[in-house]
Design brief:
Layout lengths: L16 H10 L3 E2 L7 E5 L9 E5 L7 H16 L3 H15 L18
Antiparallel strand pairs: 1-2, 2-3
Length: 116
């Protein structure tokens, strides 16, 4: 998808829902009860407070998924007082850190130093 707005980083299409959720949980945001299909709300404050509510899109195959990711990153950048590109970088790093190797085991193996 090519974005009409040149300010939008095309890497938003690489954002996975699970990575966005992991980022939010890791930064003190808590999931809330789902009110809209395919959008998972998160809040940083207890219920009833004036904290912003962010929505993580769940349906990655949806036509509006990239737009919903743009909205999530925008709202998150405003809430955290950061640039959107910094938030995007962190979410993409979160996704890379959680990636499961496609070849071999993902169980760590303890190695012993070689002795002569």
């Amino acid at each position: 998808m090519k974005f009409r707005n040149p300010w939008i980083d095309p890497r938003v299409e690489q954002v996975r829902s699970a990575a966005a959720q992991a980022y939010l949980r890791g930064h003190g945001w808590q999931p809330m009860p789902v009110e809209q299909a395919n959008l998972l709300p998160f809040s940083k404050a207890p219920a009833g407070d004036e904290s912003p509510i962010l929505h993580v899109p769940l349906l990655e195959q949806g036509r509006d998924y990239p737009q919903r990711v743009v909205e999530l990153i925008t709202d998150l950048a405003v809430a955290e007082g950061r640039y959107a590109v910094e938030v995007l970088n962190d979410i993409l790093q979160q996704g890379a850190a959680e990636a499961v190797p496609t070849n071999g085991s993902n169980v760590p193996v303890k190695t012993e130093p070689a002795t002569r």
